[in-house]
Amino acid sequence: MERGCYRLTALLIMASAEVNAVRFDPAFLIEEGQSVADLSQLDEQSGLLPGTYLMEWRMNERSAGLRETQLLPGEQGLLPCLSAASLEELGVNLAHLPAEGLADACVPFTELIAGASTEVDSERLRLILSIPQAALHNRARGTVPEARWQRGINAGMLNYSLHGSQRWGEASSRQQLMTLQSGINLGEWRWRDYSTLRLAQGETRWRHLSSQFQRDIVVLRSQLQLGDLATTGELFDSLSLRGVQLSSDNSMLPDSLRGFAPVIRGVARGPARVEVRQQGALIRESQVPPGAFVIDDLYPLSSRGTLDVEIIEQDGSRSGFSVPFSSLPVLQREGRGHYSLSAGRLRLVSGDRPWLLQNTVAWGLPWQLTAYGGSQLAEEYQSLAAGLGVNGGRWGAMSLDLTHARHQQASGEAWRWRYARYFSQTQLQLSAYRYATSGYRTFSEAAQSKNRPDTVQRKQRVDLSLTQTLGSYGSLWINGSWQNYWQQSGSERSLQLGYSGVWRGMTFNLSYSHNQLLRYRSSDRVIGFNLIVPLDRWLSKNRYANRSHTLNATAGSSVDNHGNAQFWSGISGSAGEGHALSYRLQQRLSNQSAGSSSYASAAWRSRAGNLDGAIVSNARGQQLSWGLSGGVVLHPQGVTFTQPLGETNILVSAPGVANLPLEQNGSVKTDWRGYAVVPWASPYRWNRVAPNLRQLEEGYEIEEAVQWLAPKRGALVRAHFDVKRGYRVLMTLRYRGNALPFGALVAIGNRQSIVGDEGEVWLTGLPATGELQARWGKGAGQQCRLRYRLPDDAASGIQRLQGECQ
Questions:
Q1: Is the pLDDT at 161 greater than 50, yes or no?
Q2: C-alpha dist (Å) from residue 296 to 112, 293, 333
Q3: Which residues does residue 399 pair with via DSSP β-bridges, in sequence order?
Q4: CATH code, domain with 662
Q5: Most CB atoms closer than 10 Å: which of 280, 319, 430, 781?
Q6: Which residues does 537 contact at the CB level (< 8 Å), separation at least 6?
Q7: What is the pLDDT of residues 710-729, one digit of tens each?
């Protein structure tokens, strides 16, 4: 047996050897008188036979998705069969390749493209492709081909949320609220509806809040919405309309073209490598020819900071420069833009509901400039806006725009200036609004003025946001705003500042807030302090301390300028697999009339939904509250209950396997039928879906256990895993009275194994009955078949069988 282990080890070494590695004589692996199989296939083809496999393609160290791949025998091992369409989808510029080579069903691209190579990773079932940049289209990094975007399956969906409360004491009350977000996916279209049902004081009130149809327009990189919608708020205030809207969807763009990033320009003396780093991390590496170069597809780690550029020449000499930048929401990359076009009727709870036509557009110009503008047209209201934004490098980013509005006989202008800068771990954002004349109205203000002509109009407003990181000493933040009004004295002010840090594992926060509103005569000033102590770390030697449990002690206090003071303390934590159970106990002391109060809450998160409850008691009475939330999906295979659904979701199908968690999210598990839903998938991006095979029930096998999906926005895509229930079998095979040769290949379906010493072969996922095929050479007398049947009382452990191959 020990000698057999050595032989099997040697066989595996041969199976994983490089094509040009030293070849071994198989006779060294056997004893005198034993036979050995023809091991050339394993030696040259890394243990895989020619055929079709579902493999993950990786092109230039980036995943290109999961695809059916035909592997053919070549002179130096297995070669993939790639068609011209597949190469085009990978980004290969076919115009630079000979037409006669592209006519073949399997294009010999490694011969047509200098420097191209391919490798078959049999262990991970990966096809690794390396193609020089010069042979590719100039596509942005992170591009997911449109042909791989999936519209998903037809399905019905529902998010529900039930909340209720019961109060006893001075003011007894009882109320319940049900929120329903339903939807239907049919082809490319998505329908969404939002409604609520409220029961309070014996009254029932149903409210239908919104209903909308939506689909993407791929050729325009846009979304089309029909029904109740919200306009974009980059230039004008966001409005609620009932109508139609067509707007850009930047999520359809590759990661390297989303958001704002500066264009890097430089000059290389010769063929060189350019490296771009941010915060010390390499974010871009490019090979550039001699002369001027441009890099316009950066994907920075954040929307601000400094990019360090280094040019490495062929002779090893280095040169470099830095590109500081900041960003504002309005800024666009050079040559890129964003637009929206909306038409509909304003939705207001009260007041006039006029029709509106609105459009906005922004376009990135050279020199880090962005021009933007828009208009609003209605029966008694017109406005026109235009502005310019710039990335000033070390001076920060800023924008300035002017809006002219006319309402009935009045008109006015409003200026808006915004500024953002990042320096020395400090993030600064400043916005200033100036309503230049008292006649200026926004569209919603103009619509409401018919019913409320005495509404005060804003005159000026300033917003400030400042964040300072202090390294290991914590962070400091300040948020403030100030505004005043026409024909009204005084102003409104708001200031919040705080400091947070960590000391010996304890987290603390100190804050101060000051608020003053014109409708109140006095201002409010509050100082607060919070402390969290991780008891589970301090009790690490305790038997209750482990990865699935957390335990924290909490304390805090607050005092305001009206003499109100509070102090609270308690414990909070979580338990269970994936921290499914969370809880909190708290005691609060106060000098107010309610005096002290006690609070307790708990929440449970399961694969089918969430349940929570809380109770609070003080001198005025007691209150009990509860909540239940989750999602339901109706699909062609049945009904699946799940966590609350996101905008875009993935239906996981592993029929017959219950309670199987996924690798990325352990709280998502299959139900009793083998179905689960992964909420909040990323639209137009590769999403990796893989069950946790370590928790797969004994006797089951999933061969293709990883899938890559790129759903469209709002889609429900299906990730189906072919689950095979089988047994683990150690089988001894004989042929014509002799043990099968050492190294013979044994296959059943698309699963295969290798015969070891004395005809023994290890097989997994084997069905109760079937037919094995064995081959140890190319001749007719070097292959055989065996029909087998496991005992009816076979257990889930290892089975041992013997069989005569025919």
A1: yes
A2: 29, 10, 8
A3: 389, 418
A4: 2.60.40.2610
A5: 430
A6: 505, 545
A7: 999 999 999 998 887 777 78
Q: What is the pLDDT of residue 12?
A: 42
Q: Which of 109, 139, 169 is the last residue of a domain?
A: 139
Token reading at 297: 């597809």
Identify the CA nearest to 586 among candidates 599, 601, 573. 599
Query: What are the two backbone dihedrals, phi and then psi, of residue 758, each rounded to the nearest 5 degrees?
Result: 60, 30
Which CATH number characterizes residue 299's domain? 2.60.40.3110
Q: How high is the pLDDT of residue 13?
A: 41
Cβ neighbors of 404 (< 8 A, separation 6 or more) are: 383, 384, 385, 411, 412, 413
pLDDT surpassing 50 at residue 544: no
Quick check: is 134 in a domain? yes
Q: State the pLDDT at residue 43.
A: 42
The amino acid occupying position 567 is F
- Other beta carbons within 10 angstroms of residue 195's beta carbon come to 15
Closest to 444 measured CA to CA, from 543, 520, 531, 378: 378
- What is the number of other CB atoms lying within 10 angstroms of the CB of residue 64? 21
Single residue among 659, 692, 723 that ends a domain in this structure: 723
**Do both 42 and 100 map to the same domain?**
no
Phi, psi of 89 (to 5 degrees): -65, -30
The length of the chain is: 806
The whole-model pTM stands at: 0.76
DSSP at 41: H
- The closest of 218, 292, 286, 284 to 256, measured between CA atoms, is 284
3-class DSSP assignment, residue 768: coil
- Calpha distance 300→534 (Å, rounded): 34
pLDDT over 60 (residue 39): no
> Which amino acid, one-letter code, is at 4?
G
Q: What are the φ and ψ backbone dihedral angles of 253, each rounded to 5 degrees?
A: -85, 155
Query: Which residues, in sequence order, are bridge partners of residue 241?
Result: 229, 346
If residue 11 lies in a helix (H) or strand (E), which one and from where to where?
helix 2-15
Rounded-to-10 torsion of CA 763, 769, 775, 779: 180
Cβ atoms 669, 657 nearer than 8 A: no
* Domain identity same for 618 and 675: yes
Residue indicated by tokens 């338990």: 575
* Backbone φ and ψ of 693, nearest 5°: -70, -20
Give the C-alpha separation, 668 to 646, whole Å.
14
Residues 616 and 681 in one domain: yes
In this structure, the answer to whether residues 682 and 604 fall within a common structural domain is yes
Say yes or no to pLDDT of 520 above 70.
no
